[in-house]
Specification:
The protein has about 250 residues and is an alpha+beta fold. It contains ten helices and six strands. The protein folds into two domains: about 45-95, Orthogonal Bundle (Arc Repressor Mutant, subunit A), CATH 1.10.10.60; about 95-235, Tetracycline Repressor, domain 2 (Orthogonal Bundle). It has helices at about 45-70, 75-80, 85-95, 95-100, 105-115, 125-135, 140-155, 155-180, 190-215, 220-235, and strands at about 5-10, 15, 20-25, 30, 35, 40. Strand 2 (about 15) and strand 3 (about 20-25) form a beta hairpin. The chain is globular, with a radius of gyration of 20 Å.
C-alpha cells in the first residue's frame, strides 16, 4: 500500500513534493498551513540495501532469542546461527550483543534529528519536541518497544550504555536546534531546549510499553507527556503582575 503523500513512479515510490524516487516515504507531516515537509529516504544502492537486510536479520534473531531465553543467557553464536549467518558476520555489524538491542536507537536518532531540522523556526519548542518524538518513536512497534524497555530494565550493562547514548544524543539535538535557527553556535537557551527535548523522548520512550499494554496509542501518550510538561512550566513561571521574587 502506498502511503498518503506518495505516488507510484512506475519503478518505485516518489515523494509528490520532492519528486525523488524513494525506497519508502513516510506520511508527509503538516509543518504549517502552507508548508508540507516530507521525511524521506532516497533509495539506497544494492550494497547498502543488502547490509541493512543483514543487520535486520541479526536484530530480529537476537530479539527473538532475548524474548525467549533472556539477554544474559543468549550468546553471540546463538544469534548468528538463528540468523543463518556466521559469528564473523555478527561482529562485522555489532561489537557486542548489547549493541544489537541499542542499534535501533540509531534509527530513532536519525528520525528525531531530521524532524528537528525541518521544523519551522517559529515553531515553539514544545511543538518541536512533540513533532520530533512522534517521528522518532514511530520507528518502533509496540511489541519491540516493550521488549527493549524490559531488556534495559533487567540488564545493568544495557542501562549504562543507554545513558551514554542519551548523553550523546542531547549534544546532537542541541546542534540540530541551532542549525534549525541558522545559528553558528549552541547558546545556553539551545542547550536547555535540548535537555527538555531529550527528557520528553526518554519519558515517552520509557512509557511506550506501558501505554501499549493499556491500549493507549503512543501518539496520545506522547502528547500527554508534552501537555503535562507544558502545564508544569506554566505553573512554575511567575504569574503576570506578581513579583518574581515573592
Amino acid at each position: 500500500m502506498i502511503p498518503r503523500g506518495v505516488e507510484d513512479a512506475g519503478v518505485g515510490w516518489a515523494c509528490v513534493l520532492h519528486r525523488v524516487q524513494l525506497q519508502y516515504c513516510t506520511e508527509c507531516k503538516e509543518a504549517s498551513l502552507s508548508t508540507r515537509l516530507c521525511v524521506a529516504m532516497k533509495e539506497p544502492g544494492n550494497r547498502s540495501r543488502k547490509r541493512e537486510e543483514t543487520r535486520r536479520r541479526l536484530t530480529r534473531a537476537a530479539q527473538r532469542l532475548f524474548a525467549e531465553q533472556g539477554f544474559d543467557r543468549t550468546t553471540v553464536d546463538e544469534i548468528a546461527a538463528a540468523a543463518g549467518l556466521s559469528r564473523r558476520t555478527f561482529f562485522h555489524y555489532f561489537e557486542a550483543k548489547e549493541d544489537v538491542v541499542l542499534s535501533r536507537f540509531d534509527d530513532l536518532e536519525r528520525a528525531l534529528l531530521d524532524a528537528i531540522r525541518t521544523a519551522p523556526p517559529a515553531m515553539a519548542i514544545l511543538e518541536v519536541a512533540e513533532r520530533a518524538v512522534l517521528a522518532a518513536l514511530d520507528q518502533f512497534d509496540a511489541e519491540e518497544a516493550q521488549l527493549i524497555e524490559r531488556l534495559k530494565r533487567d540488564t545493568p550493562a544495557l542501562r549504562v550504555r543507554d545513558r551514554g547514548k542519551y548523553e550523546r544524543l542531547e549534544h546532537a539535538i542541541a546542534g540540530a536546534l541551532a542549525e534549525r535557527l541558522g545559528a553558528d553556535t549552541v547558546d545556553l537557551r539551545t542547550r536547555l531546549d535540548a535537555m527538555l527535548l531529550t527528557g520528553v523522548l526518554r519519558v515517552g520512550g520509557e512509557g511506550l510499553s506501558g501505554a501499549a499494554a493499556s491500549g493507549t496509542p503512543f501518539e496520545a501518550y506522547v502528547r500527554q507527556v508534552v501537555a503535562t510538561l507544558g502545564a508544569g512550566l506554566r505553573s512554575a513561571s511567575p504569574q503576570e503582575g506578581n513579583d518574581a521574587t515573592a
